[in-house]
Specification:
The chain is an all-alpha fold. The chain is built from three helices and no strands.
């Protein structure tokens, strides 16, 4: 059984998993969403795995890759 989704900031249950019903998903509130954004801005989070061409192919559709290359 899958439990309720929890907010990654405060660990409270996120009441709606539908983005259309919860504009702050995956967070429970605007406050938690802003805390997360501030942590990114302050450099408290980091992407530790390099992005390789193989990862791009795995994670994007061919149309998305073409759009990226056109930029």
């Amino acid at each position: 059984m899958i439990g309720p989704a929890l907010c990654p900031i405060c660990n409270e249950p996120v009441h709606s998993l539908e983005l259309t019903e919860n504009e702050h998903f995956p967070f429970c509130s605007k406050r938690c969403q802003e805390i997360d954004f501030l942590r990114w801005c302050k450099g408290e989070y980091a992407i530790v795995e390099p992005l390789t061409p193989e990862k791009l192919v795995e994670n994007f559709s061919p149309e998305d890759l073409e759009d990226l290359l056109d930029q």
